[in-house]
């Protein structure tokens, strides 16, 4: 829609001078090439390398695109295929050689770099020892000292808290002993009260029993007792028995 409405230029180039047709031909997008032809794209535009879309298709062996763009016949296509295969084979051998050579160079550079690192590490260790002998403190030493100070501070706080808990425990134990003594005293008081109550109850029961026995002796089932006036001579006898 953007191309049809003229919003986007179908022949617009990138920084290398290639158009959409160049990119589609190089990647073998034959459907896009057909659509560009239908939309009136210019297939004669050259990029910075002086190549048309057809030239790009031939360079990347995109034979269908090259044939569609009219840049090769059937015979030329076969020759192009054979030539491209030979070129690919030669190019493949060259690529392998370059890859092996590059790997050797990389391995050599890696070995030299490792030797340099080991040498620098050795020199660094020597420099650290000299610095420490001169009274200097490295960053790891400062960090270790900070950790030691933090641990000592934490230990002091825990010891203070432990001492406080010990004093608190001793105070609670003293209060517990006091409560135990008070409980013992109260239990003794309760026992004494229970004992006194039992004694009084026993004495009351004994007194009641004696009173009942005395009352029983003063009566007889065969007669009736009446109260009369008592003279001085008869003071020893309070009641006179009357025989029914």
Describe this structure as you would to a colleague.
Among the domains are: 50 residues, Ankyrin repeat-containing domain (Serine Threonine Protein Phosphatase 5, Tetratricopeptide repeat, Alpha Horseshoe); 69 residues. The protein has 244 residues and is mainly α. The radius of gyration is 64 Å and the shape is elongated. It is 69% helix and 4% strand. The protein contains six helices and two strands; from the N terminus they run H-H-H-H-H-H-E-E. Strands 1-2 form a two-stranded antiparallel ribbon. Helix 1 packs antiparallel against helix 2 and helix 1 runs parallel beside helix 3.
Task: Tell me the number of strands.
Answer: 2
Low-confidence stretches: 79-83, 236-244
Give the DSSP E fraction (strand runs of 2 or more residues): under 5%
Give the CA-based shape.
Answer: elongated
Residues in helix, %: 55-70%
Distance between the termini: 154 Å
Q: Compute the number of helices.
A: 6
Structural class: mainly alpha
Computed over alpha carbons, the radius of gyration is: 64 Å
Pfam family, one: Ank_5
InterPro entries: Ank_Repeat/CDKN_Inhibitor (IPR050776), Ankyrin_rpt (IPR002110), Ankyrin_rpt-contain_sf (IPR036770)
Keywords: ANK repeat, Coiled coil, Repeat
């Amino acid at each position: 829609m953007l191309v049809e409405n003229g919003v986007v230029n179908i022949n617009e180039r990138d920084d290398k001078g290639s158009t959409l047709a160049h990119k589609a031909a190089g990647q073998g997008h034959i459907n896009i090439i057909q659509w560009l032809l239908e939309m009136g794209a210019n297939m004669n535009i050259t990029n910075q390398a002086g190549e048309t879309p057809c030239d790009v298709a031939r360079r990347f062996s995109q034979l269908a695109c090259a044939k569609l763009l009219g840049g090769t016949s059937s015979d030329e296509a076969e020759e192009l295929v054979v030539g491209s295969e030979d070129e690919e084979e030669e190019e493949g051998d060259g690529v392998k050689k370059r890859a092996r050579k590059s790997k050797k160079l990389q391995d050599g550079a890696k070995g030299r770099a490792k030797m340099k690192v080991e040498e620098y590490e050795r020199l660094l260790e020597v420099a650290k020892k000299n610095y420490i002998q001169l009274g200097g403190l490295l960053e790891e030493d400062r960090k270790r000292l900070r950790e030691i100070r933090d641990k000592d501070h934490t230990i002091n706080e825990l010891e203070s808290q432990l001492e406080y808990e010990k004093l608190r425990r001793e105070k609670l134990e003293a209060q517990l002993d006091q409560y135990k003594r008070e409980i013992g005293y109260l239990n003794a008081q309760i026992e004494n009260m229970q004992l006194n109550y039992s004694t009084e109850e026993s004495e009351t029961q004994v007194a009641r029993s004696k009173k009942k026995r005395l009352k029983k002796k003063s009566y007889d089932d065969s007669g009736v007792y009446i109260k009369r006036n008592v003279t001085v001579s008869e003071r020893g006898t309070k009641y006179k028995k009357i025989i029914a």
